[in-house]
Automatic annotation (TrEMBL):
InterPro entries documented for this protein: AB_hydrolase_1 (IPR000073), AB_hydrolase_fold (IPR029058), Carboxylesterase_BioH (IPR050228)
Keywords: Hydrolase
Pfam families assigned: Abhydrolase_6
Gene Ontology MF terms in the entry: hydrolase activity
Keyword Hydrolase: yes
Gene3D superfamilies: alpha/beta hydrolase
Domain of life: Bacteria
Name of the protein described by the UniProt record: Lysophospholipase, alpha-beta hydrolase superfamily
AB hydrolase-1 domain span: 39-304
Keyword Calcium: no
């Protein structure tokens, strides 16, 4: 069954196209709500910028930031959402960490140009906490005023992720990857529900349907499968394999700007011990650590989303 179309009534974001600086013919989509000091959201391994622009009246993070007086932007990294290349690759991995960092840089430069050179507050989610951190340490050092790492990942062995990513023939290696995989509603429901003790209390079905339905609508090939599905690049798994095997891919001590870590207590991807290890290695003078009770890896799309929205907004306002 196709996801319910009711979410279309909440489609209100402005979409911009930003030329990629290192892939010819690629245009990156940036979603926007509101004006004011700029805030850029960067997604993780599965959902595009849609995760911050869910067409739902109470769960659209861009709208929350816009209502707080900010110019809120969400980037679709290459290969995700509406940022599809002119010709989709058919072999090799696509949308690697280095490519994602280049995309973040293009989006930040474009946003700063729109806002008379104002520095940008940056919010990364999941894998996006790895790409945004490395961007802040390098090209973004003088361009980012604060960094929020939502559902952060650092370098802790994670048996569940290792089981999913390991090569069956040699579990010490990452399984063979193609450029893309597909994600549908049943798969998303299963993954999400595994973290939720009481589905009725933690998440509305309308939120799930809106997120997956709009993600499918962003992919012109979604109707090629039954049930409908959207394509997701696999490049992220190269880095996540290292992190979930306890091998860090960056040194948090290089982050100089004010930094906040925030996670839900039920999150099995961003664990408490891993997040605290990351927090302890940060050497920036202003750093915060926040946990929100009653939330999973997808807490911004759950009933406990408001405490996350408020905590991040308050941190950005202070910095």
């Amino acid at each position: 069954m196709a996801p319910c179309p009711d979410w279309r009534r909440e489609e209100r974001s402005i979409r911009h196209s930003v030329a990629s600086s290192n892939e010819a013919g690629l245009w990156l989509t940036v979603r926007q709500r509101g004006e004011g000091l700029p805030v850029l959201f960067v997604h993780g391994a599965t959902f595009s910028g849609r995760i911050f622009d869910i067409p739902h009246p109470h769960l659209n993070w861009l709208q929350v930031m816009a209502d707080a007086g900010y110019g809120a932007y969400a980037l679709d990294l290459r290969g995700y959402g509406l940022s599809k290349p002119a010709v989709c690759p058919t072999e090799g991995v696509y949308a690697t960490g280095a490519q994602a960092i280049a995309d973040i840089g293009d989006a930040v430069d474009w946003i700063m140009a729109r806002h008379d050179g104002a520095r940008v507050a940056l919010v990364g989610w999941s894998w996006g906490t790895l790409t945004t951190s490395r961007y802040v340490m390098a090209d973004g050092r003088e361009k980012i005023r604060s960094l929020c790492l939502y559902a952060p990942i650092y370098a802790e062995k994670n048996a569940g992720w290792i089981d999913m990513l390991a090569d069956p023939a040699d579990r010490s290696r990452l399984r063979p990857l193609g450029p893309y995989r597909r994600v549908n509603l049943p798969d998303t429901r299963i993954r999400w529900d595994e973290q939720i003790p009481d589905r009725a209390d933690w998440r509305s079905d309308a939120a799930l349907m809106a997120l997956v339905g709009s993600s499918c609508a962003d992919d012109c090939s979604s109707g090629d499968t039954d049930p409908p599905s959207f394509r997701v690049p696999n490049g992220t798994f190269v880095e996540l394999w290292e992190c979930f095997n306890g091998r860090p891919i960056h040194d948090p001590a290089g982050v100089a700007c004010p930094t906040m870590l925030i996670r839900g207590t039920q999150d099995t991807t961003s664990t408490r011990s891993d997040a605290l290890a990351l927090f302890d290695r940060l050497t920036c003078l202003d750093k915060d650590y926040v946990e929100v009770h009653g939330g999973t890896h997808f807490i911004n799309a759950e009933r406990r989303a408001r405490p996350v929205f408020h905590a991040v907004t308050d941190f950005i306002r202070r910095n």
